[in-house]
Amino acid sequence: MRFSVNTQIAITHIVSRRKQTLVAALGVTVGITAFVFLNSLVLGFNRFFDNTVFKSMPHLRIFHDDEVSQPLLDPATHVVVNPRILNKGKNLINPDAVLKAVQSHSQVVAAVQWVTVNLFYTSGKSQVAGQGCGADIIQVDKMFDIRSTVVAGDMQNLKRMPNGVLLGSGVAEKLNLQVNDNITVISSLGVSKSMKIAGIFRTGNSITDKTRCYMNLSAAQTLLREGNAYVTDIYVKIKDVDHIERYDADFESLTGYTAENWKEANETYVAGAKTRAIMMRAISAAILLVAAFGIYNILNMTIMQKLNDIAILKAQGFSGKDVIKIFVTEALLMGLVGTIMGLLLATFLIRLMSRVYIGGDIGYFPIGFEPVVFVLGAIVGLLVTVGAGYIPARNAAKVDPVEIFRR
Amino acid sequence: MSELVLRTEAIGKYFYEPVKFRVLDDISFEVNKGEFLTMVGKSGCGKSTLLYLLSTMDTDYDGRLFIDNELVTGQSEKKLARIRNEKIGFVFQFHYLLPEFTSLKNVMLPALKLGKYSPEEIEHRAAEKLRLLDLHDIMNKPASKLSGGQQQRVAIARALINDPLIIMGDEPTGNLDSKNTAIVFDIFKMLTTEHQQTIIAVTHDNDFAKSSDRTIELQDGRLLSHKKVWGEV
Ligand SMILES: Nc1ncnc2c1ncn2[C@@H]1O[C@H](COP(=O)(O)OP(=O)(O)OP(=O)(O)O)[C@@H](O)[C@H]1O
Ligand SMILES: [Mg+2]
Fold this sequence. Notes:
The complex is a heterodimer of chains A (407) and B (233).
Chain A: H1 5-16, H2 18-53, E1 60-63, H3 95-103, E2 108-123, E3 126-134, H4 137-144, H5 146-149, E4 150-153, H6 157-160, E5 164-168, H7 169-174, E6 182-187, E7 192-201, H8 206-211, E8 212-215, H9 217-223, E9 233-238, H10 248-255, E10 258-261, H11 262-265, H12 267-305, H13 307-315, H14 320-354, E11 357-359, E12 363-364, H15 371-397, H16 401-405
Parallel strand pairs in A: 3-8, 5-7
Antiparallel strand pairs in A: 1-9, 1-10, 2-3, 2-6, 2-9, 4-7, 5-8, 6-7, 11-12
Chain B: E1 4-15, E2 21-27, E3 30-32, E4 36-41, H1 47-54, E5 62-67, E6 70-71, H2 77-87, E7 88-91, H3 103-114, H4 119-132, H5 148-160, E8 166-170, H6 178-194, E9 198-202, H7 206-211, E10 214-219, E11 222-229
Parallel strand pairs in B: 4-9, 4-10, 7-8, 8-9
Antiparallel strand pairs in B: 1-2, 1-3, 1-5, 5-6, 10-11
């Protein structure tokens, strides 16, 4: 491979001042390491959230929201009104048609009719409060990947057992229950039902594991003293999770009911995640800025020391553009060395951190090798160095050789 | 009729510091192809200033400059750089080489920039120019490790590398002993006679001036005489 004259000159400059090059490159290394590490952390947290939280919470929930009474009089007349929540019932009317309407949307991956029932698990004298989820387990599996969380028994059994129940591991441990044991559940309406454990699951989210169980829709309806057309929610999984708010209106007009996405349902978490992402980006940007200053400084210094050389090159017929190319190439070379070292260091740090055990629901530190962040880091590193190098290079291009020679 | 390679039309220049003064005034002269021209004058009379102007590096002047029958005055920076690269070889008064590069590489750089020959050919030609100036031994020495005289000779070799139309020198033999001055003089003479290249050299060396084809004399920024043709005396 043969380099252009300008590149050859840049390489010679870089090689003959190794120490300064290394200092500038180290600045970039630190910047890129921070950038890649912090952004991987943000992505790792998000992924962790997706993996654990979306094992028990839907992307989107369609339900019959409370309605507030409206005055019967013409709104123009001033009267004292006393608005109340209407007691119309919370079920969806004609749930099969609503489900069909939801499924017609192109974003939908899975949708399932859902009934939640508050209940107590009882075994002997002990009682544990919890929630029963009545739904078609095959569809729920598509949504929450239940299969992968089942630690004992078999999810499929639930289909065959009208009185079957898939129990959270926390509940099972508390009540000391195994697969195929019987359990009595008592709903908040006082209906008691004897059920058989088809399987036990563990999602990693302790609240879910300590409270939830899955059962057939009909079982939940019985516990609520309702008929087989009683459905309160449709849970939906869609493709574009991150921009879910774009589709709320679609589903509301499709079904005529309220659609609530996971971001609305978890405003605190979303705000926290946003703050965290902004903070990490700000920190990595600040560190990168310092690295850029390092490159800028060292290049400026180099140019100050090389005024004579620049004048000679210009007298020889090198144009201002050539001079810019030479010094931007130098910045780029420093940036390249720094970026490569930064990516290596970040890989090492991520490896190290991903082996740190935190415990609780999180387990190991939620950070992993994110190719997108590495590619982005490389691009950002090179862009920043070229940007930082361009300013002093442009000044070098303006050097007037005659002024230098007269000295 | 000989061909013109350089012509100035009433060139003048001001310096503004510390006070405004006219360092060059009404300089008009012509240089023929293949001519060995020397420029003399007292220290501070404006020789270097004029040479920078002729070399196209200084563009802040009035009047007009033609090189190779082309108006140079007012051309773009890029065009001027190209003219310097292709048509002018310059030997400086004090500043010579790029310290991190070897003598050979220093000589090669303007040719690599021009890109007329392959790098192998350029290396070969550069080595030849160095041999011409008796510098073959120090070819691979970094420029920063050379003596003043050696540096000046490498600079002369570099000025020759692109076979320029005009070679301009600001006291090109100022750092040389009499033996090397003689060598450089002979090379200049050979270039003008055999290759029809043109030399414009500022000198304080009277013998050097007297042996050239023609000498122009500057005094306080004005042309005192440009008809001093030594051959006819
Ligand atoms: N940048 C400048 N600003 C103001 N005056 C200058 C500047 N450079 C040179 N001069 C003045 O211009 C005049 C001509 O300078 P120049 O360098 O051309 O002289 P010279 O003939 O080459 O002298 P020497 O033989 O000593 O090299 C001098 O009086 C000098 O002091
Ligand atoms: Mg001078």
